[in-house]
Specification:
Blueprint: H1 25-40, E1 45-47, E2 57-62, E3 65-78, E4 81-87, E5 90-99, E6 102-108, E7 114-119, H2 122-135, H3 149-158, H4 174-196, H5 203-228, H6 239-262
Antiparallel strand pairs: 1-2, 2-3, 3-6, 4-5, 6-7
Helix pairs in contact: 4-5, 4-6, 5-6
Length: 263
């Protein structure tokens, strides 16, 4: 059965989705309705939320094949590319969006079996990423700076394309601080191994490395907050993610320091 698509300004598109837990006829009906809606609207893919069903389901039509991703999660991503994208939610709008070239995804099939897939096809990779955005309450506007939102809304009224704005980057200057901390931790690990092999006492160096890691992570955190102010929604700028990045590196370098002091 063909379902109505959610179209701006219907704010139901902002609803965070939940995982599918029961794999039964109700699920099969949803999948069938999504296929029918894709065909009727000449689309290439659809998330269940786009037909007002808040479940983590994505259906993609690739050539004559149907791909179904239930409860999809991207567990690894590599490479960067710019993808020119349209969305049925914002008709007649096309924008350049940063995406990953290759992704590894885990998902359930319609029988509830968990599967994994490495996707290197650029079209399929960007399409699945675009649909997964909806599953977490994301919209087209969440990928561009807040200052550009008005121009997109104006373009909707005229049916024209909007100019390409600065987009939320996959890589930021703040990531240099993370890279620096990673190199420090690696060096601390090498020095610790040398100490375990009785090739010298490098405990003071490791202690200094800990201090440098802490400083670099503090700078990283404040620079990340500066980045966050430039975008209305940037997944790499969220405070929870930044705290996690800091905590893991400070904790690891602290463990290395403690071990070096106990040797």
């Amino acid at each position: 059965m063909v379902k109505d698509l959610l179209v701006y300004p219907d704010d139901r598109i902002l609803t965070p989705c939940t995982d599918v837990r029961t794999f039964d006829e109700k699920l099969f009906d949803v999948l069938s309705n999504m296929r029918d809606t894709i065909e009727a609207n000449n689309l290439d893919a659809l998330s269940a939320l786009q037909i007002a069903i808040p479940y983590n389901i994505v259906v993609i039509k690739q050539n004559d094949s149907w791909l179904e991703y239930i409860n999809p999660r991207i567990i690894r991503a590599e490479g960067k590319m710019d993808s020119m994208e349209k969305t049925a939610y914002y008709p007649n709008i096309e924008q350049k969006i940063p995406r990953y070239e290759t992704i590894s995804v885990v998902y359930d099939d319609r029988s509830g079996q968990t599967k994994s897939e490495l996707i290197s096809d650029k079209w399929l990779s960007s399409t699945l990423q675009r649909k997964i955005d909806y599953l977490f309450g994301g919209t087209f506007l969440s990928k561009i700076p807040k200052s550009q939102s008005d121009s997109v809304i104006k373009a909707l009224a005229t049916g024209g394309l909007v100019s390409q704005p600065e987009i939320c980057p996959l890589f930021s200057t703040k990531d240099y601080f993370v890279s620096f901390a990673n190199k420090l931790i690696f060096a601390m690990g090498v020095l610790l191994i040398l100490m375990l092999l009785k090739l010298g006492d490098f405990s003071s160096w490791i202690l200094g490395g800990l201090g440098m890691v802490v400083v670099s992570m503090i700078v990283f955190f404040f620079y990340a907050q500066y980045d966050a102010k430039k975008y209305n929604s940037c997944s790499s700028c969220q405070i929870g993610n930044n705290i996690g990045v800091m905590a893991k590196r400070i904790a690891l370098s602290t463990v290395l320091m403690i071990i070096s002091q106990l040797i």
